[in-house]
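Pipeline run #58 for the internal structure catalog. This entry was flagged by the ingest filter as a single-chain record with no existing model, so it goes straight to prediction. Upstream metadata was stripped on purpose; only the residue string is passed forward. Reviewer on rotation: M.T. Logging verbosity set to normal.
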Amino acid sequence: MALGRHLSKEACVIALSALDRRETRGAGARALVELGPPVVQPLAEALERTKDHPQIASAIVWALGHIGVSGCVEPLIKALSVAQSEVRLSASVALGTLRRRRPEIELPIDAVEQRFLPEIAYLATRVIASACDLPPTKPAIVLKHMLKQRRNASLETLFRLFALRYDEEAI
């Protein structure tokens, strides 16, 4: 996808529409990164519309993290509050990427800290739910597997949030 070389509203729309299909999602996200800072606002708007679609929202969050300008911080911080654990994990990874690549960009540490307790609460519910004794049926096995995946995503999100707040030596 060579859209990244042709900055226009149409290129942004095409790249965003590519996120709808799994087969073109990666190319669409990379094209959005190549389009650069002018697409931050359309990406923030698209993230708000697609926050209930974790694969699409995660691709948008990835693109925001790789564009790496200060305008990306607010939508990434908002994504830390999305109900989908995969999106929150992607947002914490993107903020870490942004911090490593552009250390001069200030992250709102207060906003990051405000996500600690909700993420701990979410993790606790998944730990408790996955400890339930379910019968060995196929639906129960699938449910336990899903709970384990979400628990692990939440735990990783929490560690990444801590890494944004504290030096690695302190963790």
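catalog note: The chain has a mean pLDDT of 91.
catalog note: The chain has nine helices and no strands.
status: ready for reviewer M.T.
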